[in-house]
Here is the input.
Amino acid sequence: MTRFLLVIVLLLSFTIQAQQLKTPSEFLGYELGTEFSRHHEVVDYYKYLAEVAPERVKLIEYGETYERRPLLLAYISSAENMANLESIRQEHLKALTGESDTNKAIVWLSYNVHGNESVSTEASMKTIHTLLTSKSAYLENTVVIIDPCINPDGRDRYSNWYNQYKNAPHNVDPNSKEHHEGWWSGRSNHYMFDLNRDWAWLTQKESQQRLKIYNTWMPHVHVDFHEQGVNNPYYFAPAAEPYHEVITKFQRDFQVTIGKNHAKYFDKEGWFYFTKEVFDLFYPSYGDTYPTYNGAIGMTYEQGGSGRAGLGIITNIGDTLTLNDRIAHHYTTGLSTVEVAHKNQEKLNNEFQKFFKSKNYKYKSYALSGNKDNIDKLAQLLADHQIEYGFSNGGTIKGFNYKTGNQGSISTNDNTLIISTNQPRGTMVKVLFEPDAKLSDSLTYDITAWSLPYAYGLDAIASTSTFTNITSKTNKGSISIPETDYAYVTDWNSLKDAAFLADIFKKNIRVRKTYHPFTLEGNSFERGSLLITLSDNESVKDLKSKLQASVSKFNKDLTAVSTGFVDSGKDFGSRYVEMITKPKIAMFSGEPTSTLRFGEVWHFFEQQLEYPVTIIDSDYYNRVDLDGYDILILPDGSYGNYFNEAQLKKLKSWVAKGRKLIAMGGAINAIDGDNGFSIKEKEEEENSSKNKPSPHQDLQREQIQSAITGAIFKATVDNTNPLAYGYNQDYFTLKLGSNAYEFLPVGNAVYLEDNTKPVAGFAGNLAQKKINNTLVFGTEWHGRGQVIYMVDNPLFRGFWENGKLFFANALFMVD
Here is the structure.
């Protein structure tokens, strides 16, 4: 057969196969855009493609959600590329550590990270079908990785809700029920976490599983498909300022290249769009920034619509926005992205290799020491990101001291964690560890500070020199608890210790706590230390084996003591050594709490502390007898006047009987005032410049003087207060706003003093004045019970590790 005839045969074969490949509409049995596909239907379509075109489609299940829905990735390329997929991947990854010879572009398209931004999964099906048919030429030198739904739990929550409540046929009137999703929206995952802000912190199951695969590919281009408000058009790259300073000129320029290609198609159709506004490239835990800091061209695309849009809705200019419109826009930018990568594979590969060359960053090494449990937790996060680290062999390291804000030094030991920027992930190291990220514009989309030494509560030095005296650290072998005839003592200074306590509570083991430090048999123990005596647990069968199981699970040291007669401090029978009550805990949910802030507490209990919590919804809260609970938690939210005078009186009476109320953030507003508890909000000082007129265009800039956009402040700690057991004399708190409360008469566990300035991040000058001399965390007696105030959020997005012990103290140490 001649070569010409062979080509003709192959083309005919491909044409017949392409014709046989069903479109999403043909497979699903309804026209795409006329229904919201449930996740299992999407999975079925992708499985169908992999079965019909196995030489060009590879489908893997990389994990599952908390609700057991599968997480999928589809790899698509030419038959030749797919036959050599593993060698392509390995050759591509050589760019991180040396020279790569690859001539393939790697594009990763992520859809539906926010479940109720539901158009993107629908668009993904149309996109993959087109790439396998009419646009298959793009795949000759390109491998496309498609995640059709990052957040299946949220997507199905939304699609099921919409399918239940939509009119028949759907109603485009914005006032109709189908356009008003409830509090339990589909945006977030099972635990109400925003997965688009979890790329760096990896608190959620979906993020952890996805990043394992992402790190095995490290694409050239990554797109995160989103939706924004109904009345907005379409947003695509280039992004808005601020850009983090580590972003290269090529990365910035290539965003423009891609944006102009999108614009060509949008202009042809007369579609509206905008660029360089709102969505910046700064906070490191987004689906655009995290890939960018790892060498990719990371981008967010935002279609107008979101959960309000349904199948169709009338916008504020009288147009009707349909699901079909939204699909068309995401479909167009998806194909356009692959097209640009296909045409620029050589440039992408060359610049990708350059990105991983050694960078001349100011700080070459970061040294962190302090709480061992927090060191171990941080080391695990680094390992998950494939960031290289080691531990010191001894010596002194000099540089910027995070605690003092000045030049200083620390003496290192074998528990001092050392991370260098001289490694393939060096850019990510700089972004996560630098003391204060350089901010080119104070108007940002998210928090402006996140430095991990502060988040983990560790002493740290940022050095301009490379610290080479390091070694790997072998894991400690299994711990065996010693024999004793009297008691065991263990420390209390991390969330791991709280999780250990929760674990032995499940085994009905009784535990005491100490209100004073003490020394005994050559060992020193701090406030909050846990005591497990044999006499308290005479009824517990196999006490030692049960303790051993918990010790092994948490790698926890127990010290055996033979007497309760201490060398200094208070004896074990003192009134300053009390039994810890195994509390029954309830948490408020629904309106008016914030879904995200509620989710943080919920996840803390179930996935971090592993301790039961009863969730009581606002719909039936008034019918619940709170006397069956020891603790009630009010998560942050916009409570307004939710609690009326009678409800506040009932709540105060409940606390006075010896219970605990934990009020977080905006919940404090709901219980202060004349009828509430005694905490008082601090008013903002009058600004004389407010009386001076300013241009309308400067309104945002004027308002930001009173704002704090996620900045870190150094606070003072009274660690004699049980709310602060396990802490040193200072704490770095992440403030998310300028709400401020005056000092309590007593019980100020953590507070800000005079002339407060952020150690990292942005805070307006008026906001800084307002938060001077204000409460961060505190306790107030009311009758026989206590109210615990948490003005700042110790559980923010699950990553502010050093705040979590405060919350555990509120549960177990405060009486």
Notes: The chain has 24 helices and 35 strands. Residues 365-471 form one domain. The longest strand covers residues 774-782. The radius of gyration is 29 Å.
